[in-house]
Automatic annotation (TrEMBL):
InterPro entries: 4-hydroxybenzoyl-CoA_TE (IPR050563), HotDog_dom_sf (IPR029069), YbgC/YbaW (IPR006684). It holds the Pfam family 4HBT_2. It comes from Fictibacillus phosphorivorans. Keywords: Hydrolase. This is Uncharacterized protein. Transmembrane segments: none annotated.
Length: 140
């Protein structure tokens, strides 16, 4: 798979009473990784939204392997796992700076019209995105 890498420094406010990253913050980091992947492909979510199209999460999963703590760096690896022209499944792997796998996850999205939330064909509405997604998923 063609992974795109981005990183974030673990901030104190992102940790819980045990001193480890609070579990919900990984979902925010998934979003950061997903946004960077889309930018890497040459696109922006904001441009899609300006055209009245949204990309809501329809399913999300995270599996916690090792804790990340304040002061560490989280390295977010993001790839397109599946793409059907309507549905996109993104794959995430988050490592610490020592290359230890800490979290894995997936999120599923569909593009919908903002006014009625009906799914749209990415191929029809955004043919450049469609082609870029096909190319990104074909790389293994």
């Amino acid at each position: 798979m063609n992974f795109v890498e981005t990183s974030v420094d673990v901030r104190y406010a992102e940790t819980d009473q045990m001193g480890v990253v609070y579990h919900a913050n990984y979902l925010i980091w998934f979003e950061i990784g997903r946004t960077k992947l889309i930018e890497h492909l040459g696109f922006k979510y904001a441009d899609m939204e300006a055209q009245g199209i949204l990309s809501p999460v329809t399913d999300i999963q995270a599996s916690y392997k090792k804790p990340l703590t304040y002061g560490q760096q989280a390295i977010i690896m993001t790839a397109i796992k599946e793409y059907s022209g309507i549905k996109v499944v993104y794959l995430y792997e988050i490592y610490n700076e020592d290359q230890v796998l800490c979290v894995t996850g997936e999120s599923t999205h569909v593009c919908v019209k903002k006014d009625n939330f009906r799914p749209i064909s990415i191929k029809k509405y955004f043919p450049e995105w469609h082609e870029a997604y096909l190319k990104a998923i074909m790389i293994d």
